[in-house]
Amino acid sequence: MPKITYIEHDGTNHEVDAAVGTTVMNAALDNLVPGIDADCGGECSCATCHVMVDGNWIGKVGQPNDTEESMLDLNPERQENSRLSCQIKVVDELDGLVVNLPEFQF
Prior knowledge:
- With 106 residues, this protein is of the alpha+beta class.
- The protein contains three helices and five strands, in the order ββαβααββ.
- It has helices at 24-30, 58-61, 66-73; strands spanning 3-7, 13-17, 50-53, 82-84, 97-100.
- It has a five-stranded mixed beta sheet with strand order 2-1-5-3-4.
- The model has no long low-confidence stretch (mean pLDDT 95).
């Protein structure tokens, strides 16, 4: 099972096991990681699961599609490495993934 590390804005780490086939958002919710609200339930329509992907992983998680881009554009804390965690599928190759959580989601 791949491990994902979520880093809160204050530096607090949450390392969780994530089931292959789920999403980075679901892994956070299943493990009670704070800062991932997921108000829309993973439908890519609210941007409350915003994360910043660690630079070493950005190539492995891929680029956002047009719908995700539109949601990210509404986000005041968007960065070059921003993604919606509901749109990142967990695969074995993401074992060790590190994502940072924005302060405004707390």
